[in-house]
Amino acid sequence: MTDLRFASVMVGVDAGVGTEARVGLAAEIAHRFAGLTIGIAAEAVPLALYTDAAEAFDEEFVLAEQKRIDDRLGELERLFRRAAGGASEWRQAIDEPTGFLVRQAVAADLVVLGRGGPDDPALGRTGIDLGEAVIGASRPVLIVPPHDERAAARHVLVAWKDTHEARRVVADALPFLRLAEEVTVLTIGEEREVDGLDDICRNLERHSVRARPLRVAVPQGSIADEIILQAEQRGADLLVAGAYGHGRLREWIFGGVTHELLRRTPCPCLLSR
User: Which class in CATH covers the domain with range 155-272?
Assistant: First the structure.
């Protein structure tokens, strides 16, 4: 991304209560960078319809289910068109939602997905697995809390630890960071444990980003608790963090900090791996 902009922003559209606000946020980001907003939704035909002996040969039953899915995706498209406005594109499929998103993410510079909330019932078969999307999309993923419309990213909090993941996400966040009014780079731990803080701040300055270092020696609670506390106390409207985890038996197991941010982030949170 040599021109430091998000030329295309892909947003997951599902049955959640915060979807319309999330689409509006994604469209605002795309508009700010003169980019395209891409809406995406998918729903799979239940596997049981193909395997249940009682319905195995009832083709009409399967076709009726496909028609229901098409109608539901049509409703989501209308929601997207209404909320996005401007330059936009719609993609849908009768397919497993997370896998479809991962395959389509090649068309985007940024992927925007929603974090569920207490008023969000199960998203049904249109829901996207956030963890799998962050790992599989190979794109920066912006996780948005329900009904959060803060697209300005005026005050950005960067959760820094000198790792591959943190270096990657800072590079991915540069379009946001260059437009921010205030950038705070937070490290947690004793000074001897904190590497690269001054270097990353100086490097950001060379990209016209005025970044202020912040060291917290002892967190209040867990590291995730401290990051969330700092974001809330400083009025951050964007949190930037690397996504940490490891694969085991074909499943991705996230570390505690990443898991908690996916579940509890108080503001839009940009994650990269």
Answer: alpha beta
